[in-house]
Amino acid sequence: MQAKSTANGGTGDGNTAVTDRLVQAAIRLLKEEGPSAVQARRLAREVDASTIAVYHYFGGMPQLLRAVCDEGFQLLDSALGAVPVTEEPVVDLIRQAMAYRATARHNPHLYDLMFGLAAAGGHRPAESAPARQAESAYGHLVSASARAVAGGRIRRGDPEHVAAQLWSLLHGFVTLELAGHLDKFPDGVTGVFIPLGTNLLAGLGADPEHLARCAAEALASR
User: Fold this and answer.
1) In a 10 Å sphere around its CB, with 0-12 CB exposed, 13-18 middle and 19+ buried, how is residue 208 labelled?
2) Bridge partner list, 6
3) Strand locations in 53-94, DSSP E?
4) Helix (H) or strand (E) holding 18
5) Does residue 180 belong to any structural domain of this protein?
6) Residue 147 lies inside a defined structural domain of this protein
């Protein structure tokens, strides 16, 4: 069965309202009760609709979960976009990392679903090309990396490659932290993430003393 809508809804305002409500209900259930609660029947009940609504508007649970992931990346995009752009790109990168982490911690099960680390209700999201929202979220890291290269904070190179390395580091840290593997550290940010990020950026040519000052400035408002 082909999906009849995307994350943005169906063919009219009424359809859009129903699809949006189903997606938001799934996100809420993920946060409050975990992946096992995200079932077609439960979602329909949450929005006062029949179970067939899931199949009518999306085509099935995998397609609905794809829309949920797209919405999760939109939330991540908004969080990273809200980080102010300053004259110091390294500070901006660290603040973006903290915004990324905060978004993941707000709804860990949604984060796991977005990155293929979990299923929901026995289903995995339908496969698709990287969502526009995911690319937009990643773009914030690319932009800050480009400014770091242009400003001489790190040696010249492809900002896309720099951002990919930073995202890999950040995703690995967040994933381990959400799974509880870093609970042994009193503060995983200062004990693990900042030293790890410093090592990576220093390897990319950044000055360690400057990195330390940027980290202190970025974390001052934690």
Assistant:
1) exposed
2) 9
3) none
4) helix 13-33
5) yes
6) yes
Q: Which residues pair with 9 in a beta bridge?
A: 6
- What distance in Å separates the CA atoms of residue 38 and residue 107, rounded to the nearest whole number? 14
Is the CB of residue 22 less than 8 Å from the CB of residue 54? yes
Number of domains in the chain: 1
* Amino acid present at 111: Y
Mapping DSSP to helix (H, G, I), strand (E, B) and coil, where does residue 49 land?
A: coil
* pLDDT by position in tens, the chain (length 222): 333 434 433 435 667 799 999 999 999 999 999 999 999 999 999 999 999 999 999 999 999 999 999 999 999 999 999 999 999 999 999 999 999 999 999 999 999 999 999 999 889 999 876 667 789 999 999 999 999 999 999 998 899 999 999 999 999 999 999 999 999 999 999 999 999 999 999 999 999 999 999 999 999 977
Domain assignment present for 118 = yes
- DSSP codes of every residue in 142-205: HHHHHHHHHTTSS-S--HHHHHHHHHHHHHHHHHHHHTTTTTTSS-HIIIIIHHHHHHHHHHTT
Residue 40 lies in a domain: no
Gap between the Cα atoms of 163 and 54, Å rounded: 37
Contact partners, residue 14, CB within 8 Å, separation at least 6 = none
Instruction: For residue 116, count CB atoms less than 10 angstroms from its CB and return exposed for 0-12, middle for 13-18, buried for 19 or more.
Output: exposed
What is the extent of the structural domain holding 210?
Answer: 68-219
CATH number at residue 95: 1.10.357.10
